[in-house]
Specification:
Length: about 400
């Protein structure tokens, strides 16, 4: 049975060219990038090349890129590092204030909740049915003591793209620092930190065909980010620890490939995504696409199949060779409905009945057609067993 993988928002396969670039750094090129001898300097050169490649993908300067273990560390460093920055002084007696949204990834939400326990004030912006924040609500939320706005670029469950350029202008006008968890957008859509007026941006290699366990944090020059980890003086003192040279090389190569193929990949994948969506809506009664009217990443489709349990459908499809998701991979096994889907106004029953299909660079039209044979049949079978589904009258 040939398996079909439609869960690229959870992770992507390592591109063969990325693997080829990494392999020497597991064996022959094994030097420590901090060593001054030839072995070390060869590793250092590879790390700095990767820094340039990542910077080029998001239109940053190489010295503004710090390599991390992934998106979660980058988010934590950006948010904790800004709020605890020794250079921040408030003209009021009130604690620092952070603005975020209710649909952020747990790496941001849990960080903000941890800050609240330390006395930091956090505002969680609402979103509409399409998963978009209200820019007027953002403006009203800003205070004299507001230090940071942290809003994700593309939602991991819906694919909804937030208006970062407008948010960036609001942040700049208010003299507030602006961070974006862009883990789900970098490598899928154009990201320009200058155009978006970002001070900080998080990204992760494994979301765009690089290895797991490596990511980066863009920090605009002059941003007063406090050190997050303590140790040696690696990466100009910004992130201690011996560099993961092989992983960093893989991230750099993945960034280079994404920069070169972004436009053609997006066009092809969005065509396949639309083909999948339109056919499912036509073949599965009562189904609907979540955030259908929003600007979304080209690969993401989140769809409600009323009358079934998403987990049951996911398992049924997996047994037939199709991999998808009920939401964020980080939340697998959660009993509560997705916080993203409830935030856009879905009742718990519909949130539990939603599946996410996320396509990738290697997804083929034949695979989409095969998926369209499997999904409607699996939904129909589960609905026959469902005590809650009643076909709507035509």
């Amino acid at each position: 049975m040939k398996r079909i993988y439609l869960d690229h928002n959870a992770t992507t396969p390592v591109d063969p060219a990325v693997l080829d670039a990494m392999l020497p750094y597991f064996s022959a090129e094994f030097g420590n990038a901090s060593s001054i001898h030839t072995f070390g300097q060869q590793a250092r050169s590879a790390v700095e090349t990767a820094r340039e490649q990542v910077a080029a993908l998001i239109n940053a300067r190489p010295q503004e890129i710090v390599f991390t273990s992934g998106g979660t560390e980058s988010d934590n460093h950006a948010i904790f590092g800004m709020v605890t920055s020794s250079s921040f002084t408030s003209s009021t007696s009130n604690p620092p204030h952070v603005v975020t949204s209710s649909t952020e990834h747990e790496a941001v939400l849990n960080t903000c909740q941890a800050l609240e326990k330390q006395g930091v004030s956090v505002t969680y912006l609402h979103v509409n049915r399409e998963g978009l924040i209200d820019l007027d609500e953002l403006r009203r939320a800003l205070r004299l003591e507001t230090l940071l706005i942290t809003i994700m670029h593309a939602n991991n469950e819906l694919g909804t793209i937030q208006p970062l350029a407008e948010i960036g202008r609001i942040a700049a006008e208010a003299d507030v620092y602006f961070h974006s968890d862009s883990v789900q957008s970098v490598g899928k859509i154009p990201v320009d930190v200058k155009t978006l007026q970002l001070d900080l941006l998080s990204l992760s290699a494994h979301k765009f065909y690089g290895p797991k366990g490596v990511g980066a944090l863009f920090t605009k020059s002059g941003t007063p980010l406090k050190q997050f980890l303590y140790g040696g003086h690696h990466q100009r003192g910004n992130r201690p620890g011996t560099e993961n040279v092989a992983g960093i090389v893989g991230l750099g190569k993945a960034a280079d490939l994404a920069r070169l193929s972004l436009q053609q990949d997006a066009a092809r994948i969005s065509r396949l995504r639309d083909m999948l969506e339109q056919a499912l809506l036509a073949q599965v009664p009562d189904s609907k696409v979540n955030a259908a009217l929003a600007s979304r990443t080209p690969n993401t489709c989140n769809i409600v199949f009323p009358g079934i349990e998403g987990e049951a459908l996911l398992i049924a499809l997996d047994l037939k060779g199709l991999a998808c998701s009920t939401g964020a991979a980080c939340s697998s096994g959660a009993v509560e409905p997705s916080h993203v889907l409830t935030a856009i106004g879905l009742p718990a029953s519909e949130a539990h009945a939603s599946l996410r299909f996320s396509l990738g660079r290697a997804t083929t039209e034949d695979e989409v057609r095969a998926a369209l044979e499997l999904i409607p049949a699996a939904v129909a079978q589960l609905r026959q067993l469902s005590p809650t589904y009643h076909k709507q009258p035509s």
